[in-house]
Specification:
- A hairpin with a 2-residue loop joins strand 3 and strand 4.
- The strands form three sheets. Strands 5, 6, 7, 9, 10, 12, 14, 16, 18, 20 and 22 form an eleven-stranded mixed sheet that branches. Strands 4-3-8-11-13-15-17-19-21-23 form a ten-stranded mixed sheet, covered by helices on one side.
- With about 425 residues, it is mainly β.
- It has seven helices and 23 strands.
- The chain folds into two domains: about 260 residues, no CATH class; about 50 residues, no CATH class.
- The radius of gyration is 21 Å and the shape is globular.
């Protein structure tokens, strides 16, 4: 099988996709063989889109995208289609700067290629991405507008159209927040095709001292797609990272999130909600490294599984020897809607400090029969009762979203009515 150079295991800084999970704890419950055995095509020639792809992109409108993702009012909108920046759909030019934000789009990005070498798909992204977005948030204290919506609001949409089936795309985003800044970013991955393709995304986030970033991630893929998200976060002193991940679709979806708490009093709150149906497979893999004292972390993920779908939740917390006064909590709850659905949970605490407060827990179960009987006794039909209980389970995460238009989109399009 022909392989691009960046997938050649003999080339330094790259790793071949394994065809077996045997002996690999990171991929124990996720079979990568379907991805490894697919010969994907790149939508470019020497770093430029093919003419046929450029022609196809010109016919895509914001109305087409709004069927698959919310479009946030007042957000700085950056749209990438099949790995390339599309300026006519975006609200910012390729290079934009004002007193609250700086955005650059470039296809070299050499100084941002440093990602962990043991991460297979990040190495592939290193050698294959085309246009990357560099977003810099300067120091500013006026983070809330008069209408209550956040300043420094950016929405990034990565669109897959599968122009040369099966197509592979490799989005790259770098976010840098300066000290004392506050910002909100929504990064979306959507598909305008119902065929097999690979979207392999890397996002690197660097938080300066006393900065606060709210980061939302939305994945809305088709059931045949392969979606890999690798997110790396480095936090300095007193920084706060709030993340909410919402995902559904994809034959294989891997959300990898790695947090490095490098500064005292840094905090991260990671929340997620995932939906699976059919034969879909979602794998959430989280690792938090408490490298310094007096930092806090929270993981709270919920899954709703139906049909013969599968999900994986792996939540790891490392507390290093000098990281005293650490507070770390993680929870994963799953609602199983059918006998054929399955969840594999793997919470992990690795603690080398003795003055810490750490806890973890995981649950999986079906809709409580008692709750259904109670609602039926109040005159609510069984199907409506079932929907209400599912919505109540999901809303514990959705209601944490501070962007009202994003929240309304999920209520209208993702929850049973």
């Amino acid at each position: 099988m022909n392989r691009p150079d960046y997938m050649d295991p003999k080339i330094e800084g790259s790793t071949a996709i394994p065809t077996t999970s045997k002996g690999n704890e990171n991929w124990k419950y996720t079979n990568l063989k379907p991805i490894a055995n697919t010969n994907f095509n790149q939508p470019n020639k020497q770093g430029h889109p093919d003419k046929e792809i450029e022609t196809k992109v010109q016919h895509i409108t914001l109305d087409d995208l709004e069927k698959h993702t919310p479009l946030i009012d007042n957000a700085m909108l950056l749209i990438f289609i099949d790995g390339y920046f599309v300026e006519y759909l975006s609200s910012a030019p390729m290079n934009f700067r004002n007193n609250t934000i700086s955005i650059e789009v470039e296809n070299s990005f050499k100084k941002w290629r440093s990602v962990p070498t043991q991460d297979i798909f990040s190495n592939i992204n290193n050698g294959a991405f085309y246009d990357g977005a560099l977003i810099q948030i300067p120091s500013i204290f006026d983070s809330i507008k008069s209408d209550g919506e956040p300043n420094n609001l950016v929405q990034i949409i990565h669109v897959s159209t599968n122009p040369k089936p099966p197509t592979e795309t490799h989005p790259r985003t770098v976010i840098m927040t300066q000290p004392n800044s506050q910002s909100t970013i929504l990064e979306c991955h959507v598909s305008l095709t119902d065929k097999i393709h690979l979207n392999n995304s890397v996002t690197q986030i660097f938080l300066g001292e006393n900065s606060h970033l709210t980061y939302y991630q939305l994945v809305n893929q088709n059931p045949e797609a392969y979606q890999i998200n690798s997110t790396y976060v480095n936090q300095e002193k007193n920084s706060t990272f709030e993340s909410i991940s919402i995902a559904k679709g994809a034959s294989i979806l891997r959300n990898e999130l790695k947090i490095y708490l490098a500064g005292e009093y840094s905090e991260c709150s990671l929340k997620g909600l995932y939906f699976t149906s059919g034969s879909e497979h979602i794998d959430n893999h989280i690792m938090i490294d408490h490298a310094v004292p007096k930092a806090k972390s929270e993981i709270f993920y919920k899954g709703i599984l139906d049909d013969k779908s599968k999900a994986v939740f792996s939540g790891g917390v490392l507390v290093r020897k000098n990281a005293q006064k650490t507070v770390a909590k993680q929870t994963d709850k799953n609602l199983i809607l059918s006998k054929g659905a399955r969840i594999n949970t793997k919470p992990m605490l690795e603690i080398y400090a003795d003055d810490v407060e750490c806890a973890h827990g995981a649950t999986a179960g079906s809709i409580a029969t008692e709750a259904l009987f109670y609602m039926q006794s109040r005159g609510i039909g069984i199907e409506m009762a079932r929907k209400l209980l599912i919505n109540g389970f999901a809303n514990q995460i959705i209601d944490e979203i501070k962007l009202e238009s994003f929240k309304k989109y999920l209520h209208s399009n993702w929850l049973p009515k």
